[in-house]
Structure formats: structure tokens, C-alpha cells
Write a structure and sequence with these properties.
alpha+beta; eight-stranded antiparallel β-sheet; 5 domains; six-stranded mixed β-sheet; Alpha-Beta Plaits; Rossmann fold; Elongation Factor Tu (Ef-tu), domain 3
């Protein structure tokens, strides 16, 4: 174990984590030069298209230093705030971290968040100032900023140019401690990720803390006492590399023919029948979803296909939760919880791409707290569960603690944006030795899920950074806004909003839906209502086929007869007609 080093790379988004991982893999020749490419660990097409890391990626490297061979288990992690749970999980499997800071940007919101998370878990931090090949870096300023997280001297590097890579390897080996474990103790291994393989079943990614797991051993999942026989195990390179055993301190994978997806939960402890443990490892804090939406099958996709796909997908994304629900308009589906809007978009795209299904996602909502006159308290995640307004004593909405780092010249723009979003000021202070400020605000979560991130980047020309965590609930005058199409309530288009915003949002929404919903053979009325009171209305005009085109001259009564017949036909269609709503209609509720 003294020759094993387990570590993660953590940083703010776009500070160069994945490029640094590329250089480490290239230097250790873990990947053949002919197969080397940029973002090599971002093997998901979606990651390469968006230029972001979505999943934490573990990989094993071998490096020779002073005549000794060291095994280095690296976990590359995402930087976006919606995927910070991947960072939390990877930290539980390692002893140290590489904290990467962009030399031209300095310490940003998620640099601080990830850095303090590592400090709180007693992980050894190696700080790296990246992109030193750029001309616009202020090195003395960045050095003073790093002191807020760690006192160690940072390494100056350029992952792109390969500068400082050997110094990083030396620091990993000298400063990050080897894993502390005992192969003689009862076996304990932590599941930090998993995915479903159609041939192997559930593939578990594990970090072994004590004992040894061998091929043909009987493993026991300690959360539910389910037992399985190990069919295959090994280490993780660019694929799965078979071994005969995994010992304490190692990171690897286990296949045991697990088909019951509910048995393989991330954070669970694995032990073996041959060397059974009495107590489980601490595992992970349960994630609390912050955004909710419904997913229904569309097109040729059946509910069974959707159900199977969602179950398999959830193995690979512990931040995603779901439960069955039924809608009169869309049939059987699932009510799903996400960690943010980007997370919701990624889940939607991955379900469609990786499982080949077609889905409809309803407009997102957040969890509100409703106090009834009877004293009962309800957690409302779905607008359809909102009780009658006469039964409600008061309602509350969730707030977040937002940390925004912004250059002084853009401060007024950001303050105006935060004020517009109903932010409550907690603290504003300068970062020592810089012209940048840290803003701490409490902001309603409902204001964040729409366009806050995009607008923050826009008003700061891309220089502001943002991180958040859930704060508390505060009182709000809440109402349910229903949307009626052709006189029928479409439940998936309903939303919960502040009463004082109801009219303006309703007006925008019905106009937007009028533009989005395709015209039918009959006129369609679009209405927004609170209870039985309609507060906004638009009409989508019908197509009108020229039924008189075949009449050349003759008596006008013939044309009138054809037009009357067309009117009668449209009346019948209106009675039995149904609308096919495009996905954009559900997104319009969010954007209005």
C-alpha cells in the first residue's frame, strides 16, 4: 500500500482539470500516443460536445520515481455546480486532491467551495496554478488568493504546454499519503459509482478500505444483505482490466451478475462472506433534489421502455431520483428530482441518446412548503398536489446561499441583477490584494432556475463565478397558475408562482404558447387561470382550407353551402379534437 496514491482533480469549471488529466495520462503512457486525444477521459459524446465534465472518471496509472513503481489512481471530477455531488463522492475514495486554479482567472466561487470541502474531509491539498503560459496572469495576486485555502507552496504549471507535470508527479508521491488499511481486517469496500452493462449486469466502481476481494468470493451488500458471487473484478484504465483480486487501498471494479438494480446503491459498503465485517463505512449524505419535473414517454416509446431506461440510468447518477405518477393528459410517467436545470437537461439528453427513447419533460418546479389551517405541513413538489387556496394558512419557498466572485468593474451590473432576483444581502467583501469581490446573498431558488447563470455571465462579460447551497425557507404568497387548452386543464403546464407576478407571467405565457403550439383545423383557446378566474387569454386561429377553389363562377349559394359544411365539420372536430403539444410548450412555462 505504501506505493499506492489515490487522488482527485478538483477545480472551478474551465480551469483545466481535464487537460491536466490528459497530460498525466500521456506522461505515464497509460494511453498509447496514437489513441491520445483532447478530453480523453470525457468519453461521453455529450461531454465532448458541451466541453464539460459530467461524470467523475476513475483511471489507474503507473509511474516510476527514484527506481520505485507507484500505482496512481486518479479520479477526474466535474466543475459545474450542478454536478458537485460527483466531487463529494470521489473525495470519499481518495487521500488527496490536486486543486487547479486558472492563473488568468484566480480563485473563483467553486474553487473555494471544492477546496473547503477537501479541507473539511482532511484531504491533502496540492495546489496548482495552471495556464502560466498566458500573458495576462497576475501571479502575485493568485498566490495571495490561494492562501485562503492552503498554506502550501503551489506548483506553477501549464497543462496545455506540459509545464510542471513532473513536479506534480513528485509532489503527489511525496505529499499525498498512501492508503491506510489492513488486508487482514474484515473486508470493507465503498461503492462510489456504478453503471448497467447488458452483458455483465451492474458494474460496481469500488475503493477497498480493508481486507481483500477475490474472484469467486461471495460479496454481501451491507444495506440490504443481498449476496452475490464475484464473476469478474479488476482495475480501471481506459477500459476494464481483469485481475484475480483487489486488496486494501486499491480502486477497481466488481461484476457479480447483479440484475436487481435496487441492490446496487452508491455509498453502500461491500463485505465478503469469507471475511465478513460487522459495521459499514459512513457512505454519503443523501442528496436533496432542488428542481422537479415529470418525464413521460412520447412517440413510439412505451412506459415499460421508459421505466427500464430510467432505472438503469439512475445507477450512474445518484443525484437523480424518481417515482411513478399519472397524468390525465399524458398517461403514465415519472416525477423526477434533479440538482439543477443543467442536471435536468443532461438527464433528458442522456436518456434519449443512450437508451434510444423519446420523452416529454414537463416544466420544472421547485419544492414549496405549505402550512394548512389544520396545522399539517405539506412539501409540494408537483403543482397538481397544491391544495385549495382556502385551506392554506401560509406558504414558504426555498432560498439558497449564493456566493458570487466578481471583478470590481462589473459589481454594479451584478448587484442590479441580484436585486431583480429578490436577493437579500448578507456580506460583500474584497478578496485580499485583488480588485475582485465576494458577494454573499440569499436568493429565492425559484429565481435561480430560469436564466440566472446565463444573465450573470452576460452582465459580467463572463468574469463572474457562482456557487450555492440550500439555505432555508421564507414566506411567500403562493398561487397555482393553470393553463387551459380548448377548455381543458393541461396539468403538466401548471406552475406555482408569487401572486403578485401572476398576471404578468400569465400574459407572457399565453402569448408564448400561441406562438409555439401548431395551428389546428379548428380554433384553439389558450387560457391562464387561478382557480376558476381566467386572467389571460389568446386564440390560436384555425387553418382554413380553400374549399371553394374548385368552384369556377356559378351561383354564390353553392360556395356558401360549401363554407357552411366546412364550419359544421370544424365544430365536430372541436368536440373530439386533441392537441399534440411540442416539447417547447413545456419549456415556455419556465421561460415566461
Amino acid at each position: 500500500m505504501e506505493n499506492i496514491r489515490n487522488f482527485s482533480i478538483i477545480a472551478h469549471i474551465d480551469h483545466g482539470k481535464t487537460t491536466l488529466a490528459d497530460r498525466l495520462l500521456e506522461t505515464t503512457r497509460t494511453i498509447e500516443p496514437s489513441k491520445m486525444q483532447e478530453q480523453v477521459l470525457d468519453n461521453m459524446p455529450l461531454e465532448r460536445e458541451r466541453g464539460i465534465t459530467i461524470k467523475a472518471h476513475p483511471i489507474r496509472m503507473v509511474y516510476n520515481f527514484n527506481g520505485k513503481e507507484y500505482v496512481l489512481n486518479l479520479i477526474d471530477t466535474p466543475g459545474h455546480v450542478d454536478f458537485s455531488y460527483e466531487v463529494t463522492r470521489s473525495l470519499a475514495a481518495v487521500e488527496g486532491v490536486l486543486l487547479v486554479i486558472d492563473g488568468s482567472q484566480g480563485v473563483e466561487a467553486q474553487t473555494v467551495a471544492h477546496g473547503w470541502l477537501a479541507v473539511s474531509q482532511n484531504k491533502k491539498i496540492i495546489s496548482i496554478i495552471n495556464k502560466i503560459d498566458l500573458d495576462n496572469i497576475d501571479l502575485s495576486s493568485v498566490l495571495s488568493q490561494i492562501k485562503t485555502i492552503t498554506d502550501d507552496e503551489p506548483i506553477l504549471a501549464s497543462a496545455k504546454e506540459g509545464i510542471g507535470i513532473y513536479e506534480i508527479f513528485e509532489k503527489i508521491i511525496k505529499d499525498i499519503p498512501g492508503p491506510q488499511g489492513d488486508i487482514e481486517k474484515p473486508t470493507k469496500a465503498l461503492i462510489f459509482d456504478s453503471y448497467f452493462d447488458p452483458y455483465k449486469g451492474v458494474v460496481l466502481y469500488v475503493r477497498v478500505f480493508d481486507g481483500t476481494i477475490r474472484e469467486d468470493d461471495t460479496i454481501i451488500l451491507m444495506s440490504n444483505n443481498a449476496s452475490y458471487q464475484v464473476i469478474e473484478l479488476g482495475t480501471l484504465r481506459m477500459g476494464l482490466v481483469k485481475k484475480r483480486e483487489l486488496k486494501a487501498g486499491e480502486v477497481g471494479y466488481i461484476c457479480a451478475g447483479i440484475r436487481r438494480l435496487s441492490d446496487a446503491s452508491v455509498g453502500d459498503t461491500i463485505t465478503t462472506k469469507e471475511n465478513i465485517a460487522k459495521e459499514a463505512l459512513p457512505g454519503y449524505r443523501k442528496l436533496k433534489p432542488m428542481v422537479f419535473a415529470s418525464i413521460y414517454p412520447a412517440g413510439q416509446t412505451s412506459f415499460e421502455e421508459l421505466s427500464s431506461s430510467i432505472e438503469k440510468y439512475s445507477l450512474n447518477d445518484s443525484g437523480f431520483v424518481f417515482k411513478k405518477e399519472t397524468s390525465p393528459a399524458l398517461g403514465f410517467g415519472f416525477r423526477c428530482g434533479f440538482l439543477g436545470i443543467l442536471h435536468m437537461e443532461i438527464v433528458q439528453e442522456r436518456l434519449e441518446r443512450e437508451y434510444g427513447i423519446s420523452i416529454i419533460v414537463s416544466s420544472p418546479s421547485i419544492p414549496y412548503r405549505v402550512y394548512l389551517n389544520t396545522g399539517k405541513v405539506l412539501e409540494i413538489e408537483n403543482p397538481s398536489d397544491f391544495p385549495d387556496i382556502t385551506c392554506i394558512a401560509k406558504s414558504e419557498e426555498p432560498y439558497i446561499n449564493a456566493t458570487i466572485v466578481v471583478p470590481e468593474e462589473y459589481l454594479s451590473n451584478v448587484l442590479n441583477l441580484v436585486k431583480e432576483k429578490r436577493g437579500i444581502k448578507k456580506e460583500i467583501k474584497y478578496i485580499e490584494g485583488t480588485q475582485r469581490l465576494i458577494l454573499n446573498y440569499e436568493i429565492p431558488l425559484s429565481e435561480m432556475i430560469v436564466d440566472f447563470h446565463d444573465r450573470l455571465k452576460s452582465v459580467s462579460c463572463g468574469f463572474a463565478s457562482f456557487d450555492y447551497d440550500l439555505s432555508d425557507y421564507k414566506e411567500i404568497d403562493l398561487v397555482k397558475l393553470d393553463i387551459l387548452l380548448a377548455g381543458e386543464v393541461v396539468e403538466p403546464l401548471a406552475s406555482l408562482i408569487r401572486k403578485e407576478d401572476a398576471y404578468s407571467k400569465a400574459k407572457k405565457l399565453v402569448i408564448r404558447l400561441k406562438e409555439i403550439i401548431p395551428r389546428q383545423q379548428f380554433a384553439v383557446t389558450v387560457q391562464a387561470a387561478i382557480g376558476k378566474n381566467v386572467i389571460a387569454k389568446e386564440i390560436i386561429p384555425s387553418f382554413r382550407k380553400d374549399v371553394t377553389a374548385k368552384c369556377y363562377g356559378g351561383d354564390v349559394t353553392r360556395k356558401r353551402k360549401l363554407l357552411e359544411r366546412q364550419k359544421e365539420g370544424k365544430r365536430r372536430m372541436k368536440m373530439i379534437g386533441k392537441l399534440n403539444l411540442p416539447q417547447e410548450a413545456f419549456q415556455a412555462v419556465l421561460r415566461a
